[in-house]
Design a protein that fits this description.
This protein has about 800 residues and is an alpha+beta fold. A hairpin with a 5-residue loop joins strand 10 (about 250-255) and strand 11. The protein is elongated. The protein starts with 16 loop residues before the first helix and ends in an 8-residue tail after the last strand.
Amino acid sequence: MAQVDLPLVAEAEPIGIDQEMSESYLAYAMHTIVDRALPDVRDGLKPSQRRLLLTMNDLHLGPEVAHRKCAKIVGDCMGQYHPHGEIVIYPTLVRMAQDFNARYPLVDPQGNFGTVDGHPPGAMRYTEARMSAYGVEMLADIDKETVDTQPTFDEEHQEAVVLPSRFPNLLCNGAAGIAVGMATNIPPHNVAEVCDALIYLLDHPDATPKSLMRHISGPDFPTGGMILGLKGIREAYETGRGAITMQGRAVIEPLSSGRNAILITELPYQVSKTSLIEQIVNLYESKRLDGIAAVRDETDRKGLRVVVELRREANPNVVLNQLYKRTLLRTPFNVYSLALVNGVPRTLTLAQMLQYWFGHRRDVIVRRTSYLLRQQEARLHIVAGLLVAADHIDAVVALIRKSKDRAAARAALQARFKLSERQAQAIIEMVLGQLTGLDQSRLRQEAKDLKADIAYLKKVLANPGLVTDLVKEDLRELKRRLGDERRTRILPDEADDISMEDLIAEEDMVVTITRDGYVKRLPLDTYRAQQRGGRGVVALTKKEEDTVEHLFVATTHHTLLCFTNQGRVYRLKAYQVPVASRQARGTPIINLVQLEPQEKIRAFVPVHSFEMGGYLVMATSKGIVKKTALEEYDTPLKTRGIIGISVEKDDELQWVKWTDGKQHIVLITHGGYAVRFNEPAVRPMGRNARGVIGIRLRKEDYLVGMLVVAPKDKRDMLVVSEKGLGKRTKLTQYRCKGRGIKGVRTLQITKKNGPVVGVQVVEEDDELMALSSEGVLIRTPVRDIRQSSRATQGVKLVALPPGATVRAVTKVVRGAVNGG
């Protein structure tokens, strides 16, 4: 039996599943990156966009012809170039036509192509399209062998790998796409600015981003709006990545009813009007945005118009800041300048994108010139043969008549007049009338012109500078025909984060704190002024064994420096104190600041800005005073606060006041004594210092008040006693003496009035607020309290019920920095 040789079969090699998955996914990822998601740096188009333009070019759908059904365009594109289904192709066509998505639409639409509100387009059987002037520029000279071609998916036709792109589409229209592991998001720009920058770059190849920004000031979005700051733009142009803050155009307009409205006329790029309105309504309905009465959409053919009508009491600037902070009216555009360079994704700077487009246009012009040169040389070759025929027209006619067929005539002409086959064929194809009427002068002029054209074309090919000049000429013509005005305004100021102060109206508030540490704030207007001796209004519900200890006035924008009895200081914004009703007890202050055990808030200093300078003067129950620069407290305070003053174990910090360093300090004791001394007598000390003696106290006496007054202050000092009596005495009756003395009598203490509980410096136009231990607050004009000498008992200020006492007093001073 004969031996049969079997073919050798290679032994299969095992491959790990992880390796196979990695290689297969990598191949898929590269296909997604190159063939779907990322644009080519040369024409700024993805394959689907490019194929749609090629389809419309095949259908001769230029701006001068009638629109064609989108179904026809999509169908031809799907059958000829892009076999991925209409569900992919039609949305691409729609986006290329939407003037709110594309700064310069490459497709001219007709019909419903969607709206900026987010409404979808009509079905493709209803809509029509054709190329716009910009789309035509993308295909200019494509028939002159200016770009490479490749077989279509069925290998029956050829398609352009890239378009000639006389229009710098990548920068002018931008691009957006998400690939595997990478994404691109390039903003659109103004075509006139891009043309100017390209011309400048051609003259200055080493141009810096800063110099290019003199021509391209920044993105130019189709929806207009504003860009805040140049930092993000500069970063994006220098590195290819950056965050640009977009903001819609909104203005405050007064209404005839005396109220105000916020009028929104432009939106940030790719923000839906419907989504923005829904955001505003949701914020209003959830009570996270106050002050809005109604929201109306008054958009018409003239343009976008959204009206946010405000309540009469609303601060329009605060509401507008809230819209910027909490809605898409202000939103970032994150730039990722990623494009395909020779089929490889690369992050590109502004200069690189311009240079790659210029390189592509140079190649297109060189290839176009080479094509034209070949065409002109071929025509000159034919014209030369026709001139030979014209010189021997009788012989040519006779020779053709003698020939039995065209082939014989062509061969005879070639042999007789030494012509090429193409020249002989051209002579044979001419009709008899053309032969007899052949105009030699016309042919000679055409030959002359052809020789001149050929010489010029060869010169262009030999001289790169002429190619650059042709690129410039195209750019100038493009700017002249298609350039327009910038739509997006760029503001030089950076978009700082909107602080909470910008979202809250600045208004005067009354802040009260109880002995057990409950705090609340109410608008100052909650308490109407009453006559002296009035019974007041209930300021808080009486909690068993709880009394009010602190009351002061500040605005919602103030920073509250909270000093404790142990000398520590905490920082709190006034708006962080919850608003409560007049009868409510308030919020435990330990919910706002983390106090140490046995710590209680003893003094508050409302500070509008630490840049105001000056000092904080402090006083303890034992008469110790200290002065520290305000700026030392402008530090990020720790959660548990920092040391504000060092106090002895048997002493407590009680008062802190702001001063400019040139004032007088007045200390008042529970027993009715006062001392006045010059502030410079207390030298500035650090936060950790203990201080110096301010007043020498009598037995069992302690401080109940500290005032900061001007050296020549002619106002009155108002002293309030425990049982609701008070008096005001001219400050001039208190002579300035040195610190550390026992002081002089300021109130005659009797059983009728009781000891001193509070003091204030007042004028007749001021108003006094006093709070009783029962939680009743009274607001009364100071002018109703008569002046008296230092040692009198005073007059009744508050009508107290039996057993009640006055716990706190303050002066109403709108916008005051300190309570003194």
